[in-house]
């Protein structure tokens, strides 16, 4: 659900940059790694895993569309909302800068849709409220709600940006239903990862879900998730669906074509220079499978390093 600069005006982009940075300041103030030093590498590993998982687009049968994991809910459950949000911000920045996925003008909007809404709306107001009543189904329901809310937000943002080819009512009417379906798959993936971690930390999982900021994460679990991230980015991502994702599919349904020219040419120019792994491939490499695998592995490592740098810097700022 990455919005490109072609769908966001500079004014709207700047407003969402402000909202996202304000949320980052709040997250920095609230995040606490002092009680559990292993949360820092866990955040890096989970960032790398989410990056890799987002590379795999899965086909939505009967639609011609595809979807991919958002990951915001998963990060919030395993890391807590504040550390999860900082991890998502770092992940989206790597994608926008080096992979041309999303845009720099639209970065704040993407952070809002995939980070703020999941970590600070869905996680506390939906997941934590429902988990004692619905059990495992709370994860699936929350994922569906998160994708639907994010899709609605995209329609609001394009409408505010004056994209006349995407009338709000019609665009939202297409965007929301397809992302509710994608949310079902995301819920299943999120549930599977949480259940997988239960094999390593069954006595601590309840604490992770209720008080994630102080939860302990064994190294065995981190090694497993890191290995899975490498396998996905370095191999499985090559077999991702070629169908347009939910956002592109919705734009095509409404506007019949996907806007290619950015509203703000300066942002596009910067991104053209920075996007050295455009379309998640190594430039100039003929073997597509190796090209995608190397780009995915590099992106996962960059995400891991940036997450750890951001969180470590946040801790030092707090100490000062």
Description:
The protein is an all-alpha fold. The protein has one domain: Orthogonal Bundle (Arp2/3 complex 21 kDa subunit ARPC3). The protein has helices at residues 10-30, 39-54, 72-79, 81-98, 107-134, 137-160, 168-198, 205-210, 219-234, 246-255, 265-274, 288-319, and strands at residues 58-60, 65-67. The chain has a two-stranded antiparallel sheet.
| Biggest sheet record | 2 strands, antiparallel
- Report low-confidence residues grouped into runs of 5 or more: none
Note the beta-strand portion: under 5%
- Named CATH architecture: Orthogonal Bundle
Structural class based on helices, strands and sheet pairing:
mainly alpha
Features:
single chain, 320 residues, mainly alpha, Arp2/3 complex 21 kDa subunit ARPC3, 12 helices, globular
Secondary-structure map with pairings?
Blueprint: H1 10-30, H2 39-54, E1 58-60, E2 65-67, H3 72-79, H4 81-98, H5 107-134, H6 137-160, H7 168-198, H8 205-210, H9 219-234, H10 246-255, H11 265-274, H12 288-319
Keywords: Cell membrane, Membrane, Transmembrane, Transmembrane helix, Transport
InterPro entries: CbiM/NikMN, PDGLE_dom
Organism: Fusibacter paucivorans
């Amino acid at each position: 659900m990455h919005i490109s600069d072609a769908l966001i005006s500079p004014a709207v982009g700047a407003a969402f940059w402000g909202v996202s940075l304000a949320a980052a300041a709040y997250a920095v103030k609230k995040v606490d790694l002092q009680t559990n030093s292993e949360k820092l590498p866990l955040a890096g590993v989970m960032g790398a895993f989410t990056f890799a998982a987002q590379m795999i687009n899965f086909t939505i049968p009967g639609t011609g569309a595809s979807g991919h994991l958002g990951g915001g809910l998963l990060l919030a459950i395993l890391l807590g909302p504040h550390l999860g949000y900082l991890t998502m911000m770092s992940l989206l920045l790597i994608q926008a800068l080096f992979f041309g996925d999303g845009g720099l003008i639209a970065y704040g909007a993407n952070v809002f849709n995939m980070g703020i809404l999941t970590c600070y709306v869905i996680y506390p107001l939906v997941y934590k409220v429902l988990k004692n009543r619905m059990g495992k189904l709370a994860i699936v329901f929350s994922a569906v709600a998160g994708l639907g809310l994010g899709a609605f937000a995209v329609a609001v943002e394009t409408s505010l940006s004056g994209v006349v080819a995407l009338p709000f009512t019609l665009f939202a009417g297409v965007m929301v239903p397809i992302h509710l379906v994608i949310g079902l798959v995301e819920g299943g993936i999120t549930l599977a990862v949480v259940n997988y971690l239960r094999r390593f930390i069954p006595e601590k999982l309840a604490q992770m879900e209720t008080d994630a900021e102080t939860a302990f994460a064994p190294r065995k679990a981190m090694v497993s998730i890191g290995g899975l991230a490498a396998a996905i980015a370095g191999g499985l991502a090559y077999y991702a669906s070629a169908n347009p994702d939910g956002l592109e599919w919705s734009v095509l349904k409404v506007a019949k074509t996907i806007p290619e020219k950015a509203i703000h040419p300066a942002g596009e120019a910067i991104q053209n220079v920075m996007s050295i792994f455009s379309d998640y491939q190594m430039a100039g490499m003929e073997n597509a499978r190796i090209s995608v695998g190397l780009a995915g592995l590099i992106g996962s490592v960059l995400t891991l390093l940036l997450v750890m740098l951001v969180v470590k810097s946040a801790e030092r700022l707090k100490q000062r």
